[in-house]
Inverse folding.
């Protein structure tokens, strides 16, 4: 799960933040709050960490202003855990917003101009095209003056403060794939993001999703919600229903529930069903609870990544999270968890009370036994967190097969909290996972490897993987 909670606990006083101080604070927060720091920084990995930290300290000593963000980001990303990241505050005062609005870059580009450019171009970069996110529509075009760079020009705005022709974002193509993004928020604050394209039509900005409207290949047409690219969709591939689920954000649960309920008869009698989780940004595993019974079966295979030994690392931030992250602190579960955390500072403690009676195994009476004969779940390296929980259910099911590429591998450490680096640093926060799946990690873990598909597909070369999955399922008897 990728659940966010703000835990702004008190920390020791420090001087006005500079990059060296911020790096020290980040390292301290990770050591205090992130269990992998304790469990995995050993032997050769500890030596590699020490070398990385030394280089980061040199960079921090020279970094000024926003350049410090990249030092902190790279430090956090070294852990190769999607649940460890630097969150950027987009708060600006009115005067600064006004100043930035006056200097925003503009391009004399209309939608007709953009479409004509796409039509006459022999080969477009995957990022080039018309993209949308609810009311926002932009045309992304190559910057003719800068090789490998692209600009997003507003065609229709999501706020009255932005007008058509304004440049909302800049994209720089990375050597290893994907893009570095400088995105302007509604108040003109700049956020520095990673941008990656999944399913040819989903641009993940982490956080955020844009959907591609034009140009779109026939195989990808109609696979996204035309208004909000975060929302799940259900479409037919021949006689096979396909659920495309870009997000497990809890705000989209009702939408997915309604799709399942409205098509329950169709799903119950379908020969095959496909769940497309490529690029799924995570959120809450609860979001897909209505869909999961059509994937699972009463008879289960062994869980490849069991979480019955989940623990939490005790710290002030973790205690603050536990008070709000699991419901009311008046419940017996939260009260006993808080007692265990307070009694063992700096230690890993069981998430569940070892002295409490163990609940019986789930009888799985809710599983829909009359659902599809065969289910395909399609994944890629963008399938993260709560999306991976549904992949785990598919691996345990006797009727499901996982296709595609390995997932992001984010379930060893779960449930994210945001904390301040210090009381004086208001620009950047640390996002870190609060729950550790097993105290034996990294043994038996998925981080850095992901969940492996049962049927690998080269999604970089496949123009229509949905057809490939459907054909495989049709032949499976």
């Amino acid at each position: 799960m990728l659940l966010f909670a703000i835990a702004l606990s008190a920390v020791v006083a420090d001087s006005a933040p500079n990059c060296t101080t911020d790096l020290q604070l980040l390292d301290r927060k990770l050591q205090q709050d992130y269990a992998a720091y304790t469990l995995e920084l050993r032997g050769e990995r500890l030596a590699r960490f020490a070398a990385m930290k030394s280089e980061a300290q040199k960079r921090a000593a020279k970094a000024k202003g926003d350049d410090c963000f990249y030092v902190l980001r790279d430090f956090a990303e070294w852990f190769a855990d999607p649940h460890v990241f630097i969150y950027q505050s987009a708060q600006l005062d009115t005067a600064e917003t006004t100043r930035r609005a006056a200097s925003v870059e503009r391009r004399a580009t209309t939608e007709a101009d953009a479409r004509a450019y796409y039509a006459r171009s022999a080969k477009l970069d995957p990022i080039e095209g018309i993209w949308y996110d609810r009311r926002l529509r932009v045309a992304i075009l190559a910057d003719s003056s800068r090789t490998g760079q692209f600009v997003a020009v507003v065609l229709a705005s999501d706020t009255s403060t932005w007008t058509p022709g304004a440049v909302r974002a800049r994209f720089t193509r990375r050597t290893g794939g994907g893009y570095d993004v400088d995105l302007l928020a509604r108040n003109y604050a700049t956020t520095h993001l990673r941008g990656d394209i999944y399913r040819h039509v989903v641009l993940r900005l982490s956080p955020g999703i844009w959907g591609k409207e034009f140009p779109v290949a026939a195989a990808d047409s109609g696979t996204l919600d035309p208004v909000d690219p975060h929302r799940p969709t259900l479409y037919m591939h021949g006689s096979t229903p396909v659920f495309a689920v870009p997000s497990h954000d809890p705000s989209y649960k009702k939408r997915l529930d309604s799709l399942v309920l409205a098509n329950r008869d169709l799903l119950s009698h379908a020969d095959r069903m496909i769940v497309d989780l490529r690029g799924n940004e995570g959120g809450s595993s609860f979001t897909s609870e209505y869909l999961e019974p059509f994937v699972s079966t009463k008879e289960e295979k062994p869980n490849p990544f069991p979480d019955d030994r989940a623990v939490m690392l005790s710290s002030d931030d973790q205690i603050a999270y536990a008070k709000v992250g699991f419901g009311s602190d008046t419940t017996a579960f939260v009260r006993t968890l808080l007692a265990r955390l307070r009694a063992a500072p700096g230690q890993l403690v069981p998430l569940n009370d070892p002295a409490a009676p163990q609940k019986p195994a789930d009888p799985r009476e809710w599983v829909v036994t009359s659902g599809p004969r065969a289910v395909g779940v399609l994944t890629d390296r963008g399938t993260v967190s709560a999306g991976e929980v549904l992949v785990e259910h598919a691996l345990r099911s006797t009727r499901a097969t996982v296709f595609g590429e390995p997932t992001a591998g984010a379930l060893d450490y779960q449930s994210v909290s945001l904390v301040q680096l210090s009381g004086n640093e208001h620009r950047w926060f640390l996002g870190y996972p609060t729950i550790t799946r097993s105290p034996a990690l990294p043994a038996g873990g998925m981080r850095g490897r992901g969940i492996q598909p049962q049927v690998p597909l080269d999604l970089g070369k496949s123009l229509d993987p949905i057809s490939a999955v459907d054909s495989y399922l049709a032949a499976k008897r």
Observations:
- The radius of gyration is 23 Å.
